[in-house]
Amino acid sequence: MTRSLLLRAASPLLVLLVLTLGAAAALAEPSGPVPDTPSRQAVVEAMNRVTPAVQACSNGWVGRAQVRFVFEGSSGRALSAQVVTPDVPTTVARCVEAAAQNARVPRFGRENFSVSFPFRLP
Predict the structure, then answer these.
(1) Dist. CA 59–CA 55, nearest whole Å
(2) What percent of the chain has pLDDT over 70?
(3) Which of 7, 34, 88, 90 is such that its CA lies 20 to 30 A from the CA of 81?
(4) Each residue's pLDDT tens digit, 39-96
(5) 26 with 73, same domain?
(6) What are the counts of helices (DSSP H) followed by strands (DSSP E) for the chain?
(7) In sequence order, which residues have a C-beta less than 8 Å from that of residue 51 and are 6 or more positions away?
C-alpha cells in the first residue's frame, strides 16, 4: 500500500501512529555515515523534547537542575540521567531523572557519550 493510499484510507489515529513510528525510526537510524558522537544540535533537540516532562516535576520548586546523561551509541538511548545539583529536593530530582531518562539522540559510533544539561524548573 502506498503512503498516499494509506493516508486516504486509514483513520487519523492510525496515520498519526504510522507517521510517529516513521519519525522515530528516522531518529534512531540516520542515513549516511554514523558520527562518532551526537552533534550539539542533536543533544539540544533531545533535551528540548524532554523539557516539558522535566519541568512538570517542579512541584513548586524553582531553580536549575543539572542532569548528567550517559547515552548508548548503538541505540542513542539514555543509559542514565542523574541530577547532580545538590540543592534539588529529592522528590523533584527523582522525577526529573525519570523524565530525562526518556531522552534519545541519533545513534553514534562510540560505545557511550556523556553530557550534562541544565534544566530550568519553573
Answers:
(1) 9
(2) 75
(3) 34
(4) 999 999 999 999 999 999 999 999 999 999 999 999 999 999 999 999 999 999 999 9
(5) no
(6) 4, 3
(7) 119
Are 26 and 52 found together in one domain? no
Instruction: Output the nine-digit C-alpha cell for 57.
Output: 516535576
CATH of the domain at 55: 3.30.2420
Distances in Å between the alpha carbon of 50 and those of 2, 67, 92, 97, 99?
A: 33, 12, 15, 11, 7
Return all residues near 15 (Cβ < 8 A) that are at least 6 apart. Answer: 6, 7
Give me the domain span that covers residue 98. 35-121
